[in-house]
């Protein structure tokens, strides 16, 4: 009996050497991590021959168990180690191949992209925004399809007010229209601000039932400005607009305020700058006046303050509306407002370098 097991152990030791040899050969032949998994499965999984030999140890004497057990462990650990080493080598090789494949040759000349030009309308719009953000204003927004309430009523323009004729509107129904100016945002911001100080600008599209020509467009854009606080007077308005206009048109331009009328401001002003073309002497561009009308503004009318939740005894403020196309036309000497919208590349490309 002993002899039989002795022989058995001997044969098993032999078999183990064979297994080790086979396994090392298979490992050597592995080319991918996938191959490694197959070999690992074959030699080290629970169902492998090596593991089933392990389970036979129970029936052996202590001495035999020791001898065979040691061999088993040695074979197992040699196979594991060889698998590990080979796997590392394969991973490294795979990574190198991947890097090689994905290598970017940075010495190749780049594709010559043709970049588009920014429409001068947007160049000027962004410049206006930047100037006011620099003065501590924030951006506000409002809908282009606006309620009659905000566009007129809350701006002190009641139903039968003749000032409604000043602005031919696109009505959608008797309560809704395309906003004729950005001023409704004044009422909307006041409504939201619950009596607290305000300092906002709102750039946006506006619509009027004008016949399109070189200086009129049924759709154009304004930047509304509104500042409300205690002790605000017309000097603040003048200083603010002067600063803005000198940044936009240059330090040398003179700025003057001329009395005007808007139902939502009192007093109202029209702001002029001296004509750059003739330096104030008079020419066709300024219609011989030496001045160019550039924007409208004024002190927020007490009725507007009251209607929108501000006590005119405590708060005062100013508002202004800047026509973006008008500013852009003057800055760049553009003679037709329609050029902003018709996307003629010959026109747009003149501004590529001005961005
Ligand atoms: N909303 C006026 C317009 O469109 C401009 C304006 C804005 C005037 C704010 C005064 C104050 O002509």
How would you sum up this structure in a few lines?
With 355 residues, this protein is α+β, with helices and mostly antiparallel strands. Helix content is 43%, strand content 18%. The chain has 11 helices and 9 strands.
Q: What labels would you give this structure?
A:
2 domains; seven-stranded mixed beta sheet; alpha+beta; 355 residues
- Biggest β-sheet description: 7 strands, mixed
For the record, what is the CATH homologous superfamily label of the largest domain? Answer: Bira Bifunctional Protein, Domain 2
Q: Give the total of beta strands.
A: 9
Question: Ligands in the structure?
Answer: phenylalanine
Assembly form of the protein = single chain
CATH class of the largest domain: Alpha Beta
Order of strands in the sheet with most strands: 1-4-5-9-8-7-6
Radius of gyration: 42 Å
Based on helices, strands and strand pairing, what is the structural class? alpha+beta
Gross CATH architecture of the largest domain = 2-Layer Sandwich
The rounded distance between the terminal residues' Cα atoms is 99 Å
CATH topology group of the largest domain: BirA Bifunctional Protein, domain 2
Overall mean pLDDT = 91
Q: How many distinct helices?
A: 11
Q: What is the overall silhouette?
A: elongated
Report helical residue fraction. 40-55%
Spell the H/E element sequence: HHHHHEEHEHEEHEEEHEHH
> How many domains make up the coordinates?
2
Q: What are the low-pLDDT stretches, counting only 5+ consecutive residues below 50?
A: none
- Our estimate of the beta-strand percent is 15-25%
């Amino acid at each position: 009996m002993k002899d039989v097991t002795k022989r058995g152990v001997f044969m098993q030791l032999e078999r183990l050497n064979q297994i080790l040899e086979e396994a090392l050969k298979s490992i050597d032949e592995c080319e991918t991590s996938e191959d490694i998994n197959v070999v690992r499965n074959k030699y080290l999984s629970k169902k492998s021959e090596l593991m089933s030999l392990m389970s036979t140890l129970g029936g052996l004497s202590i001495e035999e168990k020791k001898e065979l057990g040691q061999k088993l462990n040695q074979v197992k650990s040699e196979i594991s180690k060889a698998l590990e080493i080979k796997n590392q080598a394969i991973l490294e090789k795979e990574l190198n191949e991947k890097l090689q494949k994905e290598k970017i040759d940075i010495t190749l000349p780049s594709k010559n992209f043709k970049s588009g030009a920014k429409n001068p309308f947007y160049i000027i719009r962004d410049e206006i925004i930047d100037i006011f953000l620099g003065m501590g204003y924030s951006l506000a927004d409002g809908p282009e399809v606006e309620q009659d309430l905000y566009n007129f009523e809350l701006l002190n323009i009641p139903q039968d007010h003749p000032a409604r004729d000043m602005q031919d509107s696109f009505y959608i129904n008797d309560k809704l229209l395309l906003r004729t100016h950005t001023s409704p945002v004044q009422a909307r911001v006041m409504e939201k601000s619950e009596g607290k100080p305000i300092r906002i600008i709102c750039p946006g599209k506006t619509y009027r039932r004008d016949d399109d020509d070189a200086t009129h467009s049924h759709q154009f854009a304004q930047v509304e400005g509104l500042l409300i606080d205690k002790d605000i007077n017309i000097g603040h308005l003048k200083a603010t607009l002067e600063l803005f206009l000198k940044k936009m048109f240059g330090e040398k331009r003179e700025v003057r305020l001329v009395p005007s009328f808007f139902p939502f401001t009192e007093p109202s002003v029209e702001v002029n700058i001296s004509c750059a073309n003739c330096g104030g002497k008079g020419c066709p561009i300024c219609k011989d006046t030496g001045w160019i009308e550039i924007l409208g503004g004024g002190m927020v009318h007490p009725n507007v303050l009251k209607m929108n939740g501000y006590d005119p005894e405590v708060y005062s403020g100013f508002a202004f509306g800047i026509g973006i196309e008008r500013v852009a036309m003057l800055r760049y000497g553009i003679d037709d407002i329609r050029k902003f919208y018709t996307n003629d590349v010959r026109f747009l490309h003149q501004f590529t370098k001005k961005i």
